[in-house]
Amino acid sequence: MTKVTLNGRSVELDGDGDMPVLWYLRDIAGLTGTKFGCGAGLCGACTIHVDGEALRSCQTRLDDIQDGSSITTIEGLADGETLHALQQAWAEHNVPQCGYCQAGQIMQAAVLLTENPNPSDADIDEAMWGNICRCGTYQRIKAAIRSVAGTGSASTADAARA
Amino acid sequence: MHDGAHTPDNALPVSRRAFLKVVTLAAGGFAVGWRLPAGVLADGDDGADLNPFVRIQPDNTVTVVIKHLDKGQGITTGLTTIVAEELDADWSQMQFEFAPANDELYKNLFFGIQVTGGSTAIANSWMQMRQAGAAARAMLVAAAAERFGVPVGGLRVEKGRVTDPESGRSASFGDLATLAADQVPPAEPVLKDPKDFTLIGATLPRLDSPSKTDGTATYTLDVTRPGMLVALVAHPPRFGAVLAAFNADKAKKISGVRHVVAIPRGVAVVADGFWAATRGREALEVQWDFTNAEMRGSAEMLSDYKETAKTKGASARLTGDAEAALADAEDVIEAEFDFPFLAHATMEPMDCVVDLKTDRCDVFSGAQMPTVDRQIVAGIVGLPLDKVYVHTHFAGGSFGRRAVPDSDYAAEAAMVAKAIGGKAPVKLIWTREDDMHGGRYRPMSFHRLRGGLDVDGRLVAWDHRIVMQTFLKDTPFEILIEGGVDGTSVEGARGLPYDIPNVSVDLHLVDNGVTTLWWRSVGHTHNGYVTEVFFDMLAKKAGQDPGDLRRSLLRNHPRHLQVLETVLDKSGWGTPLVARAGARRGRGVAVHESFNSFVAQVAEVTVDDNGLKVDRIICAVDCGIAINPDIIVAQMEGGIGYGLSAALREAITLTDGIVDQDNFDTYEPLRINDMPDIEVHVVASGEAPTGVGEPGVPPVAPAVANAIADATGQRFYRLPFGDEIGTA
After folding, report:
1. What domains, with CATH codes, occur in chain B?
2. Residue A95 and residue A55 share a domain
3. CA–CA distance, B661 with B651 (Å, rounded to integer)
4. Is A137 on the interface with B (CB under 8 A)?
5. Labelling A108: which of B110, B531, B545, B723 has CA 20 to 30 A away?
6. Where is the Aldehyde oxidase/xanthine dehydrogenase a/b hammerhead domain (chain B) (predicted)?
7. Which residues on chain B are in Cβ contact (under 8 Å) with A19?
8. What 3-state class would DSSP assign to B16?
9. Distance from CA of B257 to the nearest CA of A (A)
10. What's this model's pTM, rounded to 2 decimal places?
């Protein structure tokens, strides 16, 4: 049984080892903020953090998770009551339309800013390329990331834990 | 002449009205005195209902009941804004909830049933929401007058409080709510003078942004019920095929699989969760009967369409005599265009939760036509309508896909619930592949154009023939097909606004077994491209600047003209574009009216050895009074992204009747690096507000195509053209 930290809480991953983490989160852990978009690692809607790295949870099996790992989903991105700077920026820029992809977008962007606090537009394109938004909110996603970039406010709860 | 009434396209809503027995939307036609029937809204709510759209809680929150689906277009914020404006509420006290399925209370006033579509949500609700807010305000004032023992006349309402300036007494909406609910609603509530609007026209933050950034927004996929199972359905691989036989032995051996049942749409595997259902479906053995299936590939279909286009179809418009004018013309140019099937490819695939009990059925769905779905589900599960409750959730995109005349996926969920005897609530999930193969595409189409110029280079003749299937056939909406013309096929073509003396538009409706549906901006998707690209070709043939010729031939269409002039001005039309060495740059323009909104766009592109880069889109929109300018801007941005995605690389093709695309690798929507910089100008207007969900889509493909032609001379007659750039 793999013991991990999920959004700051200790849990044991219980289930078919071949099951994608996405369905563990949604169907067993009841964390539905992480979305199913393609089931093939092509759209990024299911992006989560595992030990500070952005992973597609639809392509990560329970057996792929190492004992002692730290997993963060959109529900655990805020630091207590304080939203992550990107979550605040997303709301300030009215980024979401249907909103379905946005958890994945934010999780991807959070790792970008952790690794590269001041990304260029090309860096943003490269990091966010795998996250599809069918509503076409890309221009606002870029603006929201730019507004946080370089401010030093992008440190994440899970980065601190990782 | 009111310029919203000049084109045959505008006849369409009238036709819909006739069919759907629309209630006239006149002042006083809205029954603000309606009392809410018991049981319509949530049990245990201690709020006071002032009318079917406004509820005020003791804690001073004001809830606006939203009769439309929010699939991203921001209608929850928009309708709440209109009510808050007339109510003189404080924006911070406003919240919303989705209405139950109820045609009587919550119908779309343009259609007569509860439906979100045709970019009508704001337009049909505008006066109704103002009246709902104003009526509630009057009841709050009457309540305050009663409590303070003063006449209503002297009371003031500001930011959610009613104040008596004489005595200085005041009370919040929450304090007054219960008393207000007992007041007699005004027969004709007094509306504000638009010059006094403070919320309408302001850039208020979307009410749904917080929940859509912290993971708490609930979509259908997120709904859970006690004991709920997940269903995946094996569907026939061809349209029109049916189940012949199946063997569930191996599927039933998969841990977590609870039921394997045949339903009219295939075979359902019902399991403890998505993963078990997936493995169960993989283990299922199924044979299909293809006797009545569509076996053609899309290339064969196109050949058939081209053959059909050799003869004249049903006339959709005849102005002057196009044939005679073409015969007399100095120059005639011809072009043929074809467009593929397109998937809506919403980020949330189709899904629905059905909780069937012996005496009631609860349906959880992000649906555009909740009462249609309710009726179909009721028929399947065998319960009376008033025992079927539809609970609307946010939809993870729709673009038309969730307004289905036969309720395909909701019906399927009900069939599964019925087939397992209501033993457990069922969440039906379509995988991305199910969704991509699931039909209801934008129809493919073929277009043949001829245009004529006289000896002076004047545009004197325009002839447009369209061949496509209609998705209205065999549905309750079939009655909308009049004289062989389906308005959704010719919209944007028969309404050609240019001042051309001889215009003919005709249509062949052909049979095709592939299921199709409205797709964001519907007929305008293809007709907007055809008309604006062909117009550009004629301008070039005539030796005229395409911006100038549009100006000239739209001189009697002030709303078209204003958005056109705006984008020409803001883009620096006519000034040179600077290109890097080895690159060519170009500008193109398109202007198109759809759903009574007017949009023009200028595209700036760079073409080099790496292909195409769409650098910038300058967009202007006239949608009447702007309720929330930032949401309008966002819808233009999104519409441009959606239209550009289709123009560059989206196509559903078939080989021997089987769809070739499976997932986002073979049907790849626009990604962030493809998104141009977009600059949107919302034109000031005092006209009644019209929609913005769809009108941003049609102009982008022709604007970009015209810009590429400006840069390199290459024209595109087949969409998508992303892989064709630089090949000619």
Report:
1. 8-196 (3.30.365.10), 220-292+350-429 (3.30.365.10), 298-342+441-712 (3.30.365.10)
2. no
3. 8
4. yes
5. B723
6. 214-292
7. 275
8. helix
9. 13
10. 0.95
